[in-house]
Structures are given as C-alpha cells and as structure tokens.
Amino acid sequence: MNKASNPGPEAPAACYVRRSSGLQYYSIEHQLAAIATFASEKGFVIVRTFTDDRSGLNLSGRPGLSALLGEALSGSAIFQTILVYDVSRWGRFQDLDQAAHYEFLCRKAGIAVEYCNEPFANDGSPHSNLFKQIKRSIAAEYSRDLSQRLSRAKQALAAKGFHQCGSAPYGLRRMVLDQAGRPKGILEHGESKLLTGYRTVLVQGPPDEVETIRRIFAWFVEDNLSRAEIARRLTREGISRRGDAPWSWASISTVLSNPIYAGDLVFGKTTAPLKSAKILKPANLWVRRAGVVAPIIDRAVFNQAQERPRETCRYSDRDLLDALVRLKDREGRLSQRLVAAQADLASVRTYERRFGSLQAAFKAVGARLHKRARLSASPDDVQ
After folding, report:
1. Which candidate, 28, 43, 145, 259, has a CA 20 to 30 Å from the CA of 85?
2. Is residue 197 part of a domain?
C-alpha cells in the first residue's frame, strides 16, 4: 500500500477507476473496494467517483478521465486529492510524459494524486519519481506486448478461416463454434460469444440479404449499372442495410470489392497499432484463406466486377453534410478518426478539399442542425 501520510480528518477526495475490457468483470468493483479501504485508513472521504470502461492508451474515448481533469483544473473542484488504484489505471500511455503531464496539471491546480496500491508514496521525492517512471514504462510496455501478441493470434486464427472482425458483412452472419468445432448458434449484430475458447465463422445470412447481394453483382456486371444507380434502385425499392442505413455509392463499392461474397477471406489489410492512425499494409502481408464460407456469387462473376473500371463519385456539399449529420446522430459525436473509419462516408481529404478543413465541415453541420436554410448546396447527386 501507498505510505502517504494521513492528510487529516475526512479530507475530500475523488476516486478514478478504469477497466479496459468487458471481460474484466470485477475490475471496477475490486478497485473501488481497495480505494475505499485506502481512503478509510488515510482519512479521506470520497465525494466524487469517475469511471472509464476504455483502454488507457490515450485520453480520447475516456470521458471519465476527461471529466475528472476538467473538474480538477476548473478551480472549483470539491475534492483536494485524486485516488487511483495504481499507476496503470491512470493510463498506459505510450508517451510516458503524457501521464506525467496530466498529473502535473492536477498538482499545479492544487489537487494531489495518490496511487493506493503502489509500494511508494507519491510525495515528489527522487525515489517516488523514479519508481513512478518505471511503473509507467512497464504499463506502456505491457500494452505494446499485448497488442503484438493479439495481432499475431488474430492473424493465425484468420489463416484458419475464423472470423476476426466485429460484425459480419451484409448478407452474412457469424456462427459460434465450440472447441470441438460444433455449431452453437448464430450471433446477431451487437452480440458476442461468451466463452473465449469458442470461435466464430461466417455463414450465409437471411435469404433476402443473400438475394440482394446477388442482384447487386448482377446489376453491376450484367446490366452495367453504376454503383450510385444500384444504390438508388435499392433505396427506391425500400431495401436498406443493417440498422435501416441507406445504400450509397461507398457501401455498394464495399460489397463489390469484398472477396468474402465469393467465399474467400482476406484479413489484415490495414493496421492501427495501439490506436494509432490506420495505415494500409502491403498486399503480401494480408492473410488470405479461400473457401471459408459458401459463396453467394460465383468467383468468375466477382472477378468480372473487379475488372470493371472504378467510376468516380461526386458528392454535393449537401450530401457530405447530410452524411455527417447521420453519423453524429448515430454516434453522438464527431471526430477525424470516426469519419475516417466509416466506409459509407467520403474521405477526410474530400471534406478538407470541399470545406477547407474537417473542422469547418463539423461547424457547418452544427449550424445546419439549427439553420438548414443558410447552407448552399449543389444540385449534383452521387453519380
């Protein structure tokens, strides 16, 4: 336990707890119990609790820590100390100075940070500072090592034909297999397998979705329709994607370029280690496995679709802003990473070219929510 001196009777404190995985069922409960014991022994009374159910690699996506820092730096915090279970719960930041920076900001604002389950007192002594940096380094290295091991494991499982991504593509579903390879059921969107020893494979989905995939390829290969025209046809027929999302040029393009519909798995085309920016990996590093699912369309038809030149897509300003509005309504926020991760949105670079910057596009969306008439729009449609 931390050997900090007793701060006095009932000194107000906030506690911060974090778990990085939904599988760490009792992590929060365990941290709260340990912090409560520490607080009782040292004379603190906990007046605020901040919780994060997120990875500790960075500040983004951690509303609990963000709120804690905001309150601590506001000058009107009702606590004088922040109690954290250990150094790793504060964060596994890859830049060790980032963790130190946040702690320094709190200390500068008159808010101390105490680590309740560390063998040193966070008293600013050379001994304390040295141990803190060592523990931060260990926490960061743990994340790097875990990331590499998980990446290798996923690639190995993908090479065996097991599904490694979250949800299944349109027209397919995830089937759970036990350790003996016996089917245990179909997972719907948002569901996850309960046991870590179980695996998932892709199988054909509902007949109506399978038929829609076949029609998309037939319209594209046999009828020579553009991606945008296919999207418009499906919209006119009232056929939507998962969650009633409309079809678009981008989503049709995603279907036409995905070899899974011909039965072949391609995994690991991009990488984003430790939540860094996503980058495309060389094709020779992709994991490929043929025949992992019964093909929805013939491989020859899929190859024909790949040989057809890729038509360009033109979005009007209104199209681009409407897409941002839909994204904000769905996710409750906007960010560069969120935009870049959407297959159905134009690229970040497109928004920057059209509006001058991505931030300008975000501001336009904010204005549009209240002042729709003030936005100019081109009559161009997706072509």
Report:
1. 145
2. no
Asked, for residue 198, whether it belongs to a domain, the answer is no
Chosen domain end from 307, 336, 360: 307
- Global pTM value: 0.61
The reply to whether 170 falls in a domain is no
CATH number for the domain including 43? Answer: 3.40.50.1390
Write out the E strands in the chain. 11-18, 44-52, 81-84, 112-115, 172-177, 183-187, 199-204, 265-267, 270-271, 279-280, 287-289
**Residue 125 shares a structural domain with residue 241:** no
82 contacts 14 by C-beta, under 8 angstroms: yes
Q: Which domain holds residue 250?
A: 206-307
**291 shares its domain with 323:** no
Q: Catalogue the E-assigned strands of 157-216.
A: 172-177, 183-187, 199-204
Same domain for 339 and 266: no
Task: Determine how many CB atoms are found less than 10 A away from the CB of residue 260.
Answer: 21
Q: What is the CATH number of the domain that holds 266?
A: 3.90.1750.20
Q: Which residues fall within 8 angstroms of residue 275, CB to CB, at 6 or more apart? A: 55, 57, 58
Structure-token pair, residue 199? 């695996």
* pLDDT tens by residue, the chain, 383 residues: 444 455 556 799 999 999 876 556 558 899 999 999 999 999 999 999 999 987 756 777 789 999 999 999 999 999 999 999 999 999 888 888 899 999 999 999 999 999 999 989 898 899 888 989 899 898 888 878 887 888 888 889 888 989 887 789 999 999 999 988 899 999 888 787 767 788 999 999 999 999 999 999 999 999 999 888 998 899 899 998 887 788 888 889 899 999 999 999 998 888 776 666 677 888 888 999 999 999 999 999 999 999 987 665 567 888 888 889 888 888 888 888 778 766 567 778 788 888 888 888 888 888 333 333 233 333 222 22
- The Cα–Cα gap between 100 and 107 comes to 10
If one counts the domains in the chain, the total is 3
Q: Give CA–CA dist 151/285, Å, rounded.
A: 13
